[in-house]
Amino acid sequence: MVRTPEHHLSSARSAAVINVANAVNSTLELDELFELTLSESIRAIPDADGGALFLYDQPSGLLSCRAYVNFDEIVEQIRLLPGESFTGDCFKTRTPILLSDRTEILGYPSPMRSENRRLLNHSMARHPSNNSYRAMSVPLITAKGECIGVMTLNGFAEKGTFSVSDFGLLETIAGLAATALERAALYEDIKIKNQIFKSMIDYQQEQLVNMNSGKGPDVMLEQLGAVIGKPLSLLTVYGEVYNSSSNPEHPKPLHEYLIRDGRQLLGKLLISSDSRTGLRQTDDYFIQQSLLFFALEINRRSAMRQAEHKYKTELMDHLMKGVLTEDFLAKAESLGLDTSGALLPVAVRIGNVGAVQPVDQLMKQNEIASFLELEMSRAFPGSLVVLRDQVYLLLLSIRPEADYKGVYHRLSAIAEDIDQFSAVTKGGAITRFGAGRLVRRIEKLPEELQSSIATLKLMEETGFSGRIADGSQFLLERLISGSGKEVRSFIDIYLEPICTYDREKGTELAKTLQAYCRNLQRPGQAAKELHIHTNTLQYRIKQISRLLDADLADPEILLNLQLACRLAGGSGYLQ
After folding, report:
1. CATH superfamily membership of 11-186
2. What is the pLDDT, as a whole number, of residue 52?
3. Please, what CATH class does the domain formed by 211-303 belong to?
4. Where in 430-481 does DSSP place strands (E)?
5. Half-sphere exposure in the Cβ direction for 125 (13 Å, CA)
6. Which band of pLDDT confidence, cut at 50, 70 and 90, is reported for residue 119?
7. For residues 524 and 16, what is the distance between their CA atoms, to the nearest angstrom?
């Protein structure tokens, strides 16, 4: 017995969905709609020989047969309790059910009441086996999340089978049918009904055609934006960001809709507004329909992502090994990394390190990790995110004019959002971001990537209370336990900006800083060693303070500068 179908639509099956959509949207008469839904579903699934559609009657609390194919008319007398037989169980649990053979059907743990069994046997008397060899039921769930009934298909021929893809197709059809049923019951005024009905048909057909022709989410998003008249953004867990043409430069989110396939998060639809106008009732229909189409399209493209992930992992593995091939930039850009500005390596871990989690908790962790990728694509377009050994390695694309403190603030906000999201989903995740330094020269990238991973490890080992840190917050620990490479990294943090400035401007700030650190209590002696006036010395110290974005009056910073100058003098760094 299978309860959860996969969702893969081939071109033929997509065409079948279009045919069903055309059929079920061709009438607002409920009885005709029931029959069309069943007949078109059976036509779309080769090994389906018959079926019945049951609707839930609120006053009686029973499921009644409203349409049937290849049964005797006595089947209309069947009244099922929620939970009775696999059809009633499908309604009660709102879960699709696939029974692959006769044994599973006869041995289903929730049997029919005797009167209903008698009626069902009578209705199948025309078939030699007096039973079906296979069956599948899917709930009819409206766009508002209300389960209104169940559609069950049967196979009366001994040969044949219902595949998982047949199951997924029937669920898609059921979604379309449920929406059509809800719509038919909702609009009572004929004139308004016809006008809205036509626009819905046109929209649904065009979205299906767009999906089937591979035009992509951007075209589908443009169509939705035109219908509801609001600026839209679509974000996927694969780092894709789409905006409608009417999207303002600084949109104000009015509503956010999560795009899901079962429990898996696929993306997010953002609807913007100037807050003076809200969403109409009909807008919600188009949005809910689009969420289905977006989910199908994102799933369709996921196979391409598998190959892309492989290339991303290979690229990151080369960086981890310190290998920068000649075609590194070309490969990185082909994978979507924007290398026109600076890059910031960041290592991220979500969740308790080394904790043994039950299956449900692991599923929550995957959802939270998807949320991380979604937020990164939104905050830092053109970035690269790769999962490696339970650690997310990020190469964030940063604009050349970006302020590092501003970037740091955005990362802190994302870390906080992830923690809040995990609290909502009761995942209990603890998010840590270990950042390297901003890289403007590509040859520095492997070193800073390793630095970000080392920082993340130190955050975990030392019980660091913050969500985000960089290597400068663990300098002493790295120096104590590190190698010559760590010493060089320490020197770079404090002296490289000054040495770079000296090379570019022909100044002597590094030499000035060394003399100043040697003569902290005697600035006059430092000026004498440098053969400059004390005012010039003070001017250069202010330049150094500005370049390092640090207050040299801070004892801790001054101590680190002294240590860096001493280490640099011993290593020949300044020669």
Report:
1. GAF domain (3.30.450.40)
2. 95
3. alpha beta
4. 431-435, 468-470
5. 10
6. very high
7. 88
Residues near 158 by beta carbon (within 8 Å), at least 6 away in sequence = 129, 133
| Sheet containing 97-99, strands listed edge to edge, beginning at the edge strand earlier in sequence | 79-80, 62-69, 50-57, 147-155, 134-141, 97-99
CA 323 – CA 306 distance, rounded (Å): 23
Alpha-carbon Rg for the chain in angstroms: 32
Q: What residue ranges of the chain are covered by domains with CATH 3.30.450.40? A: 11-186, 211-303
Whether residue 567 has pLDDT greater than 60: yes
- Identify residue 407 by its one-letter amino acid code: V
- Listed as own residue / partner, the contacts of 285-288 with beta carbons closer than 8 Å and 24 or more positions apart are 285/143, 285/179, 285/183, 285/200, 286/200, 286/203, 286/224, 286/227, 286/228, 287/224, 287/228, 287/257, 288/143, 288/144, 288/179
Torsion sign over Cα 386, 389, 390, 394:
negative
Inter-residue contact 442 to 331 (CB < 8 Å): no
Q: Would you say 68 and 106 are in contact if contact means Cβ atoms under 8 Å apart?
A: no
At 186-202, the pLDDT tens digits run 644 455 566 777 777 78
In the numeric block, which tokens belong to residue 398? 């940063």
322-471 to CATH, choices 3.30.70.270, 2.60.120.560, 3.30.390.50, 3.30.565.10: 3.30.70.270
**434: nearest Cα among 476, 470, 396:** 470
Tens of pLDDT along 245-260?
A: 655 554 555 788 888 8
Residue reference for tokens 């680190």: 560
Contacts of 56 (CB under 8 A, 6+ apart): 62, 63, 82, 91, 147, 148, 149
Global pTM reads: 0.41
Q: Specify whether the CB–CB gap between 433 and 348 falls below 8 A.
A: yes
Which has the closest alpha carbon to 427: 265, 235, 294, 262? 265
Name the strand (E) or helix (H) holding 561.
helix 555-571
Confidence of residue 92 (pLDDT cuts 50, 70, 90): very high
